[in-house]
Fold this sequence. Notes:
The complex is a heterodimer of chains A (269) and B (346). By secondary structure, chain A is an alpha+beta fold.
Amino acid sequence: MNKENSFFVGWKDDMPKANRSLLIKFIVVLFISIPLLTFLIVKSQKPFNNHIFEFGNVKEFTGIYHADPVPILEVTDNKIPEGFSNYVLLVGFGKFGAEGIISNIEKSSGPLNGLKVTLQGTLIYGDGRYLMELTKKEDSLIKIFDEPTVANTHLYDRKKDGYSGEILDPKCYFGVMKPGEGKIHKSCAIRCISGGIPPVFRANIENGQYEYFLLLGPNGEKINKAILNDVAELVTIDGETSIINGWPVLYANPSDIIRINKKSYYAQD
Amino acid sequence: MSVNYSPVLWNKQKKLYDLILWIGILFMAVTFIIFQVLFHKDITLQTLIIRTTAIIAFFLLHIILIIGPLCRIDKRFLPLLYNRRHLGVSMFLVALIHGGMAIVQFHTLGDTNPIASIFTANSNYLAISDFPFQVLGFLALIILFLMAITSHDFWLKNLSPAIWKGLHMCVYLAYTLIVIHVATGALQYEDNPIYWTLLVLGVITITGLHLYTGIIETRKLSLPHTLEKEGYYKVCSLEEIDDQCGKSVFINGENIAIFKYDGNVSAVHNVCKHQMGPIGEGKIIDGCITCPWHGYQYLPDNGQSPPPFNEKLKTYRTSVLDGSIWVHPLPLEEGSFIEPTKIPQS
Ligand code: HEM
Ligand code: FES
């Protein structure tokens, strides 16, 4: 009788035939469905951007250090490839901005703004923009050149403007994390922006093109803490735009950041 | 305080079980990673680890949850249930890598304690699509952790089977939390409808199987036993139970397992002292009722486990009349001897 044979006792060494044949079928079905399932899941996944973080690879760059509107190195030694801006946004180690490190350095070196310097750090880049992580912290400053201070370059007049897009933390978005945007990455972006990494507004321009703005308050003040809730969401921002030291800037009041839901946004397209 | 527990022996079957399990886990990891590297060459190592372990843990959780109903539908699946705790502990370990890596990636090296950051970074607790989904994963991981560390029989004895079972029923809570973790997390980013389809299919499979077996079970247990004589209730004809086998019945709120063996009939409580397994679905082996789940044994006439074990079940009086089995649903004290009812030779 089948029932007789199929009673399984776990602490015995052998398994009845009836159990074994069913379980073998079960396991074979599982092993066939596993690659089909993983294929389906991976194939349906949103593609990642091709941005790069040169983890573990510290390089030296020489240029003019600008403190305005946020720490930027205007690289002058032609090391930045074609198609990328040579205004390199500086960020700190981990989920922090560069300002803490720079002010520590300045305690011994004096003000750096407008001076030609050589800095070392790890590169982060994509979509026309370069960033440098000051991986070595206070040891990031290699050299200060004995040259006169250079004033801020390329100051443009402010003009009224508004866009829809997403507020990102540029460090993760431009290469450290995949994906470095959207809901999955939201709490990390909040951590980074809260830690002083300048928020960047990725504005949708047209046909899938983006413009990246540093996001500041109406008077150029930091609004990192005020906008945390709207990070990684689809928003419209009205304010004034300009370009300082090679970076587009959007001056906006946090109350002018309006959430839009995805549906109404796509309906406009 | 002295606690006795029977040491779990590593027999051939257990080793085979774990071998197949870990080959399966590695197979899934390897296929997933190969496809990722093939189709998404820009993926980072961290994301690869987070996603591979997430998918494996969630898949294992589905398997864990369908084993119970599968065994109800076909007893030949029981070997899967026997070592289900190995599946559970393995699933927890994989989920721990996922959760740990996500905490390192998204919350460390920042301006806030990483664990606090899980709860406070995104604080939109009133939202639906914007809900802080990592919190749900974290709570699920805590539940899975508690289950994994108490999975040994040592804890079963210490916590009492009822509390232990209660704790381990929380796996359904953990599953629910993880479904919402995925729905409010990854699925708010990915836009291919295949993901919602898969998630819903998984939920339907698990709830569907549980509902189906639940309905069958209640139907079986509440078979009409209308005939009553002097406190005894008619259960079924003698032929309905195979020799050395049992039957579960529910009479006057008592869950009873009736066994027919060597020309005798006996009845004991239908709830195993180990993990509350269905005794009535067991068999008589070497003269002992043997629980179908993990093989705990009891003597049919007094409900006691043979020495050195000391589990005791309640026993019930039985009778055989006109080719039918009758049982008295008033239980005797656990371990009470009751002379087995002889089946008249006709
Ligand atoms: C500390 C606890 C946890 C944290 C912080 C956490 C965090 C995350 C994060 C950030 C993601 C999105 C990752 C990405 O897609 O790149 C994710 C996705 C996911 N998590 Fe968790 N999780 C935790 C626990 C769990 C547990 C216990 C499970 C149970 C199996 C689980 C299952 C999943 C699944 C299936 C996904 C979707 C697949 C994916 O996108 O990788 N998570 N989790
Ligand atoms: S429930 Fe584990 S042996 Fe009965």
